Automatic annotation (TrEMBL), chain A:
Belongs to the small GTPase superfamily. Rab family. It is a lipid-anchor. It is found in: Endomembrane system. SUPFAM superfamilies: P-loop containing nucleoside triphosphate hydrolases (SSF52540). SMART domains: ARF, RAB, RAN, RAS, RHO. GO terms for cellular component: cytoplasm; endomembrane system. It holds the Pfam family Ras. Residues 177-200 are annotated as: Disordered. Keywords: GTP-binding, Lipoprotein, Membrane, Nucleotide-binding, Prenylation. The keyword Lipoprotein applies. It comes from the Eukaryota. GO terms for molecular function: GTP binding; GTPase activity. This is Uncharacterized protein.
TrEMBL record, chain B:
PANTHER family: RAC GTPASE-ACTIVATING PROTEIN 1. SUPFAM superfamilies: GTPase activation domain, GAP. This is Rho-GAP domain-containing protein. The lineage of its organism: Eukaryota, Metazoa, Ecdysozoa, Nematoda, Chromadorea. It comes from the Eukaryota. GO terms for biological process: mitotic cytokinesis; mitotic spindle midzone assembly; Rho protein signal transduction. GO terms for cellular component: centralspindlin complex; cleavage furrow; midbody; nucleus; spindle midzone. Residues 18-205 form the Rho-GAP domain.
Length: 200, 211
């Protein structure tokens, strides 16, 4: 059997308004770097990082999209293959929060139905310029039944957690594969409708 | 505020299909009044706003503002409108034109001129555009140059303005089926064109032949 460097490949997508910090989140996660230059992304770009989760090597292919409206025809074509989508807003920019509904509609229209979504309120280090409270972020996430975290790419708050949580949620959703590994603990599945056991 | 002639309101129910000249007055200069009103408002008190033209406005508010410009005889009051909604209104207006300010048919010609690195040839390309496109482009480039002069506060030097606005301003002919990789090259070329235009000395656009 061909030896692979990883067990699973997850495709993730970062979306959200211009200037909310999508590229910075990605750079913090992939290179542990932060750059204050304020340069727009053209079209689409991606980074790869392999993580370990529940004994599996998971290669994350993370697509970073341009927030500019004019690029939407390109960027929406990437929604289809995504297994996880991070929707980012900026806690210091009310309009980026108000546009969440529009981004969620985009996901509904272009992404596959079972995509795992996560909402990130970025720039949470900028307490003096905050206009969106954490509670408002939590509320909209509950309303749409999606995961939520406040992050700061600059201060490296919750960045790793966001990616690990999203990857874990995708992993949990996958049909359990017949592998040599023992079953991992999955608290969501209280009632097991399919008795597991025996070899296949 | 100078007197800005307004074009007659359009009767066409399908506004998305209109071309630039439909929004221009019947006399020189051929620049849509919405562009003039919005840029004047921006230049009055918004040039230091961080991320001007990059940060998005609220989608619903931008749509409403654009509609009130295009379907009402009264000019909307922009004095309390956030920067992002004004820039969003300009971008949405330009995006919904049937063709871009630099029409798709001129794409190759501009690329060719820029690759030759001959300033005169680039200017000739601009001059050869239809009058509304030429006037609007020259006017808008001058405005963006003013925006970039404030880049120490607004963080929008011409490189960034070119990235953000190129797909809105520079058209190209889409041959179907297009490939994503191809589209990416086109995007880089669009950015290159706008970047080069923004680097031209302002005086080039203040020529008597313009406006």
């Amino acid at each position: 059997m061909a030896k692979k460097q990883y067990d699973l490949l997850f495709k993730l997508l970062l979306i959200g308004d211009s200037g909310v910090g999508k590229t910075c989140i990605l750079y913090r996660f992939s290179d542990d770097a932060f750059n204050t230059t304020f340069i727009s992304t053209i079209g689409i770009d991606f980074k790869i990082k392999t993580i370990e989760l529940k004994g599996k090597k998971i290669k994350l292919q993370i697509w970073d999209t341009a927030g500019q409206e004019r690029f939407h025809t390109i960027t929406t074509s990437y929604y289809r293959g995504a297994m996880g989508i991070m929707l980012v807003y900026d806690i210091t920019n009310a309009r980026s929060f108000e546009n969440i509904a529009k981004w969620l509609r985009n996901i509904d229209e272009h992404a596959s139905e079972d995509v795992v979504k996560m909402l990130l309120g970025n720039k949470c280090d900028m307490t003096d310029r905050r206009v969106i409270s954490k509670e408002r972020g939590e509320k909209i996430a509950i309303d749409h039944q999606i995961r939520f975290l406040e992050t700061s790419a600059k201060s490296n708050i919750n960045i790793d957690k966001a990616f690990y949580d999203l990857a874990e949620a995708i992993l949990d959703k996958m049909p359990s594969q017949s592998s040599t590994n023992s079953m991992s603990i999955r608290p969501v599945e209280q009632e097991s409708n399919k008795p597991q056991g025996g070899c296949c | 505020m100078p007197c800005i002639p307004k074009a007659p309101l359009l009767q066409s129910p399908n506004r998305q299909k209109c071309i630039l000249i439909d929004y221009c007055s019947t006399s020189h200069p051929y620049i849509p009044s919405i562009i003039i009103h919005c840029t004047i408002a921006l230049e009055r008190e918004h040039l230091d706003r961080e991320g001007i033209y990059r940060i998005s406005g609220t989608v619903s508010a931008v749509t409403k503002l654009l509609n009130s410009f295009l379907s009402s005889r009264v000019i909307p009051d922009l004095s309390n409108v956030p920067t992002e909604n004004i820039t969003g209104c300009i971008k949405k207006f330009l995006k919904e034109l049937r063709d871009c300010v630099v029409p798709s048919t001129s794409f190759e010609q501009f690329i060719h001129a820029i690759e030759s690195n001959d300033e005169q040839q680039i200017i000739t390309c601009v001059f050869e555009l239809p009058a509304p496109n030429r006037d609007t482009l020259a006017y808008f480039i001058l405005h963006l140059q003013k925006v970039s002069q404030h880049s120490s506060t607004n963080k929008m030097p011409i490189e960034n303005l070119a990235r953000v606005l190129a797909p809105t301003i520079i058209g190209y002919s889409k041959r179907l089926p297009f490939k994503i990789a191809e589209e990416f090259t086109v995007n880089s070329n669009q950015t290159m064109i706008l970047h080069r235009l923004l680097k031209l000395p302002s005086v080039r656009f203040l020529d008597d032949s313009f406006f």
